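REVIEWER CHECKLIST
Item 1: Sequence provided? yes
Item 2: Single chain? yes
Item 3: Sequence as submitted:
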Amino acid sequence: MGLRQALATGLDIDVDINATPSFEKQEFSRIRKEQGVKAAIAWRDARFTNEG
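Item 4: Structure as written out by the authors:
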């Protein structure tokens, strides 16, 4: 696969990911609107910690 094809494929995948609704997107948006960007980013980051 050449670079041009890889970029085109990556764009297709990115469009699919961003066009698909998900709980995570909705929750991030809700927190951002209610509590601000810092809280939304903290929520997102907390999902990837090894605590718990």
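Item 5: Key structural point noted by reviewer: The chain has a mean pLDDT of 91.
Item 6: Recommendation: ____
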